[in-house]
Every structure is written in structure tokens, then in C-alpha cells.
Design a protein that fits this description.
Elements (H helix, E strand, L loop, with lengths): L3 H12 L3 E8 L5 H14 L10 H4 L3 E7 L11 H8 L14 E9 L4 H5 L4 E9 L2 H4 L9 H10 L3 H6 L1 H8 L9 H20 L8 H4 L28 H25 L4 E6 L2 H6 L1 H17 L7 H6 L5 E6 L10 H11 L1 H9 L3 E6 L6 E8 L2 E9 L5 E4 L11 H6 L23 H9 L5
Parallel strand pairs: 1-4, 1-5, 5-6, 6-7
Antiparallel strand pairs: 2-3, 3-4, 8-9, 9-10
Helix pairs in contact: 9-10
Bound molecules: guanosine-5'-triphosphate and magnesium ion.
Length: 458
Amino acid sequence: MKNIAQDVQDFLHRSRDSHVRIAVTGLSRAGKTAFITSLVNQLLYSATHDNLPLLSVARERRMIGAKREPQTNLMVPRFGYDEAMSQLLSTPPQWPEPTRDVSEIRLALKYKPQKTSKKLLGKTATLHLDLIDYPGEWLLDLPLLEMDFATWSSAQWTLLTGKRAELSQPFQDAVAKLDLDAEVDEAALERIAQCFTDYLLACKTAGLHWVQPGRFVLPGELAGAPVLQFFPVTFDSERKVIKNSNLAVLIARYKQYQDKVVKAFYKHHFATFDRQIVLVDCLQPLNIGADAFFDMRSAIEQLMRSFRYGRSGLLSRLFAPKIDKVLFAATKADHVTPDQHGNLVSLLQQMVHPAWQTAAFDNIEMNCMSMASVTATQSGFIATKAGQQAAIQGTTLTGEPLTLFPGEVPKRLPEPSYWQQHGFEFVSFQPLAVEDTTPLNHIRVDKALEYLIGDKLA
Ligand SMILES: Nc1nc2c(ncn2[C@@H]2O[C@H](COP(=O)(O)OP(=O)(O)OP(=O)(O)O)[C@@H](O)[C@H]2O)c(=O)[nH]1
Ligand SMILES: [Mg+2]
């Protein structure tokens, strides 16, 4: 539990422009952990290296130094920066593990202010920066707060077409045998919830992102708890719910899940953020195929709809965060040649267009860019019969050196013909090796930082 003195101090810091909380949002595997690790790493090196030329405070040599600080919320585990770094620095270099639980990190950035108001307070100033990391799956539960059990159930059943119909067959067979009005059968509910979880896991393996409820696939400390033992059923919302029936218990558990799990997560971690970065990996689904690509687009759209920033938005109604800037970043830009970065940004703009419009309407500043938190390739040119061709070079996860032109990134949402041509080749590479005395290689993390905190370091 945060103590009151700390709360008051946080409040004073925030009001003096010396504290900022950044919500790092993104679906699973979007690159949140890599981004937070790189951001911390880059800032820790920024006073001694020229690694952040696009961040004014660093370019103008006003950065004095950065250090990790004890976080204020003692109930949340510390972000595993050292663990992530030791994986990136190992031989061969490895990517950090997928995130299984929520964690937090706080940095103090000491700098020489330019602003007269800050100068009056002293020759140096400190900005405290809070970041949290969590499994991307948990984010998908936000839209669930706006639906009752009947609405959620029906939305889930509507999804069961095509690939999802096939993957969910065992679940559909199991649920068909359940009598909703009969007295609750806990064991049956547990069994069917497991079938539903297996279906969600199969969706993930097939590259589909819209997987709800998020805790079913990554339960954290709730593994095995009855609050995770519900599933969507088809029923008429007018239907009379018999006390202590299977249906009554499903409804109650869903409600508990909304209140005790989802709402609690957002309340503790998203209630007070000031700025948001939304990380999107457009490339991986482009590689898997149309289903995965449009599934991800719809996941992002639904998510951003719930994040609606204006006063009418769900989060605003629940917790009133004072968000004033949002940055959309296409991650893993080092997977394409630099001439494709422009296309990557236009594709991202198209993907997030609805969210962008809403936010613009509510006067929130927004921007789109492409970035690589930790680069895994080097770009260059190779000679071909047709002349010089842009290419990237890296080491695959199995240790093979590889040079390739991964393909053109479509500027717009791809037409059906795109998928027939198999336009894009996404290969996973090891991160580039660095010494433990130099910062990680990145592309435009400094531009992201300038947008997110540049003004706070003026
Ligand atoms: N080439 C390249 N690959 C990246 C970069 N960032 C992330 N990746 C790849 O994407 C994978 C997922 O990145 P994470 O940072 O773990 O993603 P996450 O959003 O934290 O994922 P969850 O914890 O599962 O929600 C990594 O294991 C890398 O393979 C990047 O900047 N460049
Ligand atoms: Mg992660």
C-alpha cells in the first residue's frame, strides 16, 4: 500500500512538472519489455555517450545523469532490468523473456533546466519517470469492462467463424452439454473453462491477437482460481436466471472478474498516467497472413476505443487520468530496410486512424513514428543483376548469418491480392551484440523520448 506521505510527495512532484508516468501499451509481443529496457539503458548512458541525439536535453549537453530509484508502490515487483540486460548481453545475445506479471520501474533524471521558472528553484532539476510493464494479454480485458455477461458472451460467440470455429470445436461441444438452469456443477464449469482456455491458447499460436479474457492465457497469481472459471454461453438476455444455477455462477464470476481483476489492474496501474506510448508490431502479422493482420487491427481498434481519452471515455469515467499526449510507434523497424520506414509509418497511421480521430477531437496531441528499441540488424546494400539493392543483415535465432531484402511494406491496409503474392518475409534475428560499457543499439528511441518527455526536461 502506498503511504500517504509518499502520495503527497508524488502529488507535489507532479504539480511541479517533475514527475511523469508513462503508460507503455501494446498487445503481446509488441515489444514493451524491449522498449522499457532500452529506454532505461539509453537514459542511464545519456550523460556519458552520444546515444540520444534527437533528445534535446542530451544533445544540448544538459543531461547530468540518470539513476534508478526505489519505486513508491511497494506492492508491485520491480521491473527486471538487470535480468533483461543480462540476456541481451549474453553470448549469443538473447531477447528478454515474455512478461508474465506486472512490474514497475522509476528513474530519476537530473538535468540543467533552461526554463527560467525551473532555474529559480536551483541550478539542476530532477524529473522522476515511472514506467510499468505487464503482459500484453491483460490489456485486452479493458473493453470487457463495458460489457455485461450477456453482451460479452454474444460478442465471443459471434467471433467463432473461420479459423476460430475450427479451433473452438472442442469447447463448443463441451458447452453444448451444459444445462444452464441446473444446479451449479463446479467440476463441469472448471472443465469447460479449461476447454475455453485451450481454445484461446490455440488462437495465440495461430497468430490471432484478440484473445479474451487475457488472464486465462496468462493467469499470473490467479492460476486455478474460480474467478477464472467462466466462459461465454449463448442465452437470451431476458432469460430468468435461477439462483445457484450454472448460469447464475457464470454471471457472478464474470462480474467478479470485471471488478476484482480487470478494474483493479487498471486502477492500480493506469489511473494516473500522463502520457502514453502505444507500440504496434505491424510486421509480424503482415508475415503471417490476412487473418492475423486484420485480427490485430481490430484488437487495436477495440482497445483504443476503450482507451478513449476524452471525458466520455471509459478510463476517464473510472479514474480520470490526465493524459495530454499519445505516441503510436511501429516497433521492430530494423526488420525492414530504411527506405521502407516511411511506408511503415503510413501503414501504422491507417491502422490507428479511428483512435487518432477521437483523440484529436479531444485535443490530445498525437504522433506516429517507427522505431527499433534494440536493433538486431544492420542495413546496407547488396549488388544484384538489377543494380544495388537495399538489404538488412543479421544473425538468425539459430545462429546463421543472413542478408536479405525482406520486402516492401504496404503503405495502406493490404488488398486481398497482397496476401496471394506473399509480399513480406519476417525473420527473427538475435539482438546485435554490445559491450556492457556501451548503450544498446536503437533506432529513434531518442525521438520517442523527445516526444514523450522532451518538454518536461526543458
Ligand atoms: N528486431 C527487433 N526485434 C524486436 C525489437 N523489440 C522486440 N523485438 C522482438 O519482439 C519480441 C517481443 O518483444 P517483447 O519486448 O518481449 O514484447 P512484449 O510487448 O513485452 O511482449 P509480452 O511481454 O508478451 O506482452 C522479442 O522477443 C524480439 O524477438 C526490436 O526493436 N527489434
Ligand atoms: Mg513483455
